[in-house]
Amino acid sequence: MQCFRLCSIRKRAPFRRGNPGRSGDANRKRVTTSTKRRVIRVQPSELALGMKRVVRAPRSIVFRACTEPEELARWWGPRGFTTPAIEIDLRVGGRYRFAMQPPAGDLFHLTGEFLEVDPPSRLVYTFVWEPPGPDDRETVVRLTFRGVDGSTQVDFTPGVFATEARRALHEQGWTDSFERLGELLSGP
Q1: Which of 34, 42, 74, 108 is most buried, by the most CB atoms less than 10 A from its CB?
Q2: Which CATH number fits the domain that encloses residue 158?
Q3: How far apart are CA 128 and CA 136, in angstroms?
Q4: How many CB atoms within 10 Å of residue 116?
């Protein structure tokens, strides 16, 4: 058995591609924050989170870093956190459980079930804190790995968050985690 970390999102309306001047799209506003490392799109009145990161490593290596306990323990979680125990059963219907230790405070856990496992292209799984807090709910996390000129673009979409505070907490945690992953795989 092995393990993997997950996240939550805020409910969002579907985003339609196309000409913004078309009927129905004119009233939809989209706020996009973009840096070299991430893109976050937020629909008005929604608690959604989406990130895109480019990691300078082939997607098979990035996928492995996201699914093997020994690799996950090297980068998982916000800066200062450790992941002393990771269990993963990497198959559709398989479960995972992570123990996370903050720099100060008690050990806590997150868990879930794999819904899609398509190496090295895609992972989809549920995510829930153990035990969940009043503002937490089970969410579905989607990770897509696309090869781009010898690097890997990781598209990350967690589920729907109950509150802005939970969305912000996950945004910071995932930002730190993806930065740590990039540092690990990009080398010195």
Answers
A1: 42
A2: 3.30.530.20
A3: 7
A4: 13
